[in-house]
Structures are given as structure tokens and as C-alpha cells.
Amino acid sequence: MIGRLAGRIDMRGPDHVLIDVRGVGYIVFVSDRTLAALPRAGEAAALYTDLIVREDLLQLYGFPTLVEKEWFRLLTSVQGVGAKGALAILGALGADGLSRAIALGDQTSVKAAKGIGPKTAQRIVLELKDKAPAVMAMGGTAPASPADDDAVIEPVPVTPAAKATPPRTSGAAQAEALSALANLGYSPSEAATAVAQAAGDSPDAETPALIRLALKALAPKDTA
């Protein structure tokens, strides 16, 4: 199994890149969001990868973080969601956005991805909601980066298209907030829903603020 590639981008296609890893070229399919964030041809890059094997096909799919790779694996486990659909969802929402959408049961956000209908979006949310806390707790949002001996050329900054994406609460902060709520006795589903809501309301919140917002969301509502 090929789990990570680090080398130099030889070519960029509309939905894939060709990465030269010490003389061997690998075609890696990526989401629109990932493609926009990758450097130009000739620059160093690294991606976590998932290899899909079929009778007549071997295809590599690439992701900037381990959390995104895990969401891809979970999405493709849902009936009716193939690799192309999973990439479309990740391209539309990103790993953090998908985590929040699944935890909150937000079918509308999932449905916004190209090629994903309402029934499929509903199935995704229902089947994966219980798995959202574990993925959010991974905290593996650090991007894959070339090792010193892989980087023949210094990487260039993220492209303007990628910079235009609003900053979001870090996966590490969400993981720490989930852990704190679990220590306070909240169930994984309760904690995930509250943290997702807090991260959506305050995208730049660090761990302490995220915990406070999540606790506020979990507080009993006064019905009087």
C-alpha cells in the first residue's frame, strides 16, 4: 500500500498531478481544493495517498492531511459514493467543513458538492455521524511535507486561490476540545456536535475558546 508520496510535481492536470519520486512518476488524483493548494510544476510536494484497486484499474488519490484521507476512506464506504463523489465533497467542504457537517447532521452542505443528490447526502450523514468524533479527534491536520532529501527545490507558497479560503479552527484544537468534553462526561456524539457548532460559529477559535463555546451549546436551554 502506498500511503505517502514526496517528490517533485512533473505535471498538473484538471483533476490530478504527476509526481516524480526519484525517477518514478505517480499519477495522483486530487480534489479541486487540494489541486489549488499544490505548488507549480517543478516544485516539491508531498501528499498522503490512498490506493484503490479494481480488477482493471489501480488509482492513487492524494490528500494534504491524514484527516482528509480518513474522510475519503469513510465516504467511499457509503453505498453510492465513489472516489469521484468523495473528492467532490472534500473539494467543496474540506476536511474540517465535512467534519462539522457530519457532526451537525447538515445534509444541505454535503448536498452542495457536485454530483451528490439529497438521498446520497442523507445516507452519508446517517451512516457517518457516529464516526465523526473519532475523525475529529485525530487532530492530524498538519499537511504532508517533503523531507529534506525529497525536496530538490524549495516549495513555493500556497497559490492565491488557496489563500482565499477563510481560515478555520485547527483540527488539533477540535481534538483537544473533544477530549476535554469527554473528560467532563459528555458522550462522543454530544461532544462532536457541540464542537462542530462552536467551530462553525467561531472559525478562528483556539482550544480554550472552543471549549467555552461548546459548553455553552451543551448548556440546558431555559424553556421558561
TrEMBL record:
A single cellular component GO annotation: cytoplasm
Region entry Domain I, spans: 1-64
All copies of domain Helix-hairpin-helix DNA-binding motif class, residue ranges: 73-92, 108-127
Annotated segments matching region Domain III: 169-224
UniProt KW keywords: ATP-binding, Cytoplasm, DNA damage, DNA recombination, DNA repair, DNA-binding, Helicase, Hydrolase, Nucleotide-binding
Localization, UniProt: Cytoplasm
Keyword Amino-acid biosynthesis on entry: no
InterPro entries, per the entry: DNA_helicase_Holl-junc_RuvA_I, Hlx-hairpin-Hlx_DNA-bd_motif, NA-bd_OB-fold, RuvA, RuvA_2-like, RuvA_C, RuvA_C_sf
Any one of the GO BP annotations: DNA repair
MF-aspect GO terms: ATP binding; four-way junction DNA binding; four-way junction helicase activity
CDD domains: UBA_RuvA_C
Function according to Swiss-Prot or TrEMBL: The RuvA-RuvB-RuvC complex processes Holliday junction (HJ) DNA during genetic recombination and DNA repair, while the RuvA-RuvB complex plays an important role in the rescue of blocked DNA replication forks via replication fork reversal (RFR). RuvA specifically binds to HJ cruciform DNA, conferring on it an open structure. The RuvB hexamer acts as an ATP-dependent pump, pulling dsDNA into and through the RuvAB complex. HJ branch migration allows RuvC to scan DNA until it finds its consensus sequence, where it cleaves and resolves the cruciform DNA.
Similarity comment: family membership: Belongs to the RuvA family.
Domain remark in the UniProt entry: Has three domains with a flexible linker between the domains II and III and assumes an 'L' shape. Domain III is highly mobile and contacts RuvB.
Subunit structure: Homotetramer. Forms an RuvA(8)-RuvB(12)-Holliday junction (HJ) complex. HJ DNA is sandwiched between 2 RuvA tetramers; dsDNA enters through RuvA and exits via RuvB. An RuvB hexamer assembles on each DNA strand where it exits the tetramer. Each RuvB hexamer is contacted by two RuvA subunits (via domain III) on 2 adjacent RuvB subunits; this complex drives branch migration. In the full resolvosome a probable DNA-RuvA(4)-RuvB(12)-RuvC(2) complex forms which resolves the HJ.
Name this protein carries in UniProt: Holliday junction branch migration complex subunit RuvA
Upper classification of the organism: Bacteria, Pseudomonadati, Pseudomonadota, Alphaproteobacteria, Rhodobacterales
